[in-house]
Amino acid sequence: MMNQVKENSKDKLIKTASRLFQLQGYHATGLNQITKESGAPKGSLYYHFPNGKEQLAIESVRLTANFVSEQIVEGLNKTQDPAKAIQNLIEDMAKQFQREARKGGIPIASVALETALISEPLREVCQSAYANFQALFTQKLVQAGFEESRAKDMGVVINSMIEGAFLISFTTGNVEPLLLVAKQIPVVLK
Amino acid sequence: MMNQVKENSKDKLIKTASRLFQLQGYHATGLNQITKESGAPKGSLYYHFPNGKEQLAIESVRLTANFVSEQIVEGLNKTQDPAKAIQNLIEDMAKQFQREARKGGIPIASVALETALISEPLREVCQSAYANFQALFTQKLVQAGFEESRAKDMGVVINSMIEGAFLISFTTGNVEPLLLVAKQIPVVLK
DNA sequence: GTCTATATACTGATAGAC
DNA sequence: GTCTATCAGTATATAGAC
Question: How many Å apart are CA B107 and CA B96, to the nearest integer?
């Protein structure tokens, strides 16, 4: 019923918008560019997203967040030991980051920074994304026997370390920060 | 000679631009708003910055970076032990962040994310800013007897942790990430 | 649901008088 | 160095035919 063989305009718009917001940020990405690259007509955009750019961005961030969450889950499931698992996950992210040669942007950070003060709904969906990432790390730690409260704290810390390393790696065009942060994971979890 | 009692248009423009770029990001900040809030005429902007917005942003990021560097230096000088010093610095930043109630933005991150792929000179000045922050942490560690190579690595890691914690704290409107990262500094430096 | 044409406002940038 | 007027382009958003 809801699974269509052919991709509809709404999905095409969200997919294209997700890519462009991630690559260029919120304000640098215009609706004209999104409709043009998605192939969907502009009238269609306001039919599917009556609240315009803000609503489209909210759904785009949700899509991006789900995609990243899946990557995290898959990565963490590869290894039982949590420290090794998280370290490997970050190193895999660094490899992918290097392969793409910085042509993909950072998943959510730019939209979060640009909109946190001007759109409460957009801020909330970015906040949810980060809360979700943290929860995945925390879950992995709890399953490995970490005490609940410490696992929660370390989820926040690990998420911060990863986001910061992404920011610096992206700005400098060098994956070193990601690799160095990965190496510190076993240290902070000891 | 170069120290004028009265603030000239160029300085007013850079100061205002620094504040607005930090608060709103690069693309959301228009030249009309900068000239209006600075009190400087628009014609004056292109007289002082022939390369327009990009050049103004470069000098604004430099000003912001210098200001942050001074804050870091002052903070690190308060305490001799590097772990304690860095931890206290981050906690002070968190306090200031909370006082401002998220009304100041994050110093450089938004501009860095928005421009790294579209302006090489702007990317470079953001990169320099981060390199400078890292060097200050590294210097503190070397002075305390850390081995040079490890001190460099930890400068990068600490800078990443702080930037990431700022990003998450800003997005969520909660200083917890900054405080938790501060608490981990002695752990990673042990 | 799709598509085009258009409205209004604002963007970065420039010209030229003063 | 200052200031105003204005350019061409693009932004988000809407109206209305199909």
Answer: 13
Which of left, alpha, beta for B41 (phi over 0: left; psi -120 to 50: alpha)? beta
Count of structural domains within chain A: 1
B131 inside domain: yes
**pTM for this model (two decimals):** 0.95
Separation CA A113–CA B84 (nearest Å)? 29
Nearest nucleotide over every DNA/RNA strand to the A43 CA, judged by C1': C3
Tokens of B36: 């209006």
A48 sits within 7 Å of strand C by its CB: yes
**Is A67 a domain residue?**
yes
CATH at A89? 1.10.357.10
Q: Which domain holds residue A162?
A: 60-188
Report the SS3 class of residue A80.
coil
Q: Is the CB of B47 under 7 A from strand D?
A: yes
Does residue A29 sit within a domain?
no
Q: Is residue A73 part of a domain?
A: yes
* pLDDT tens, chain A, 190 aa long: 444 445 788 999 999 999 999 999 999 999 999 999 998 888 889 999 999 999 999 999 999 999 999 999 999 999 999 999 999 999 999 999 999 977 889 999 999 999 999 999 999 999 999 999 999 999 999 999 999 999 999 999 999 999 999 999 999 999 999 999 999 999 999 9
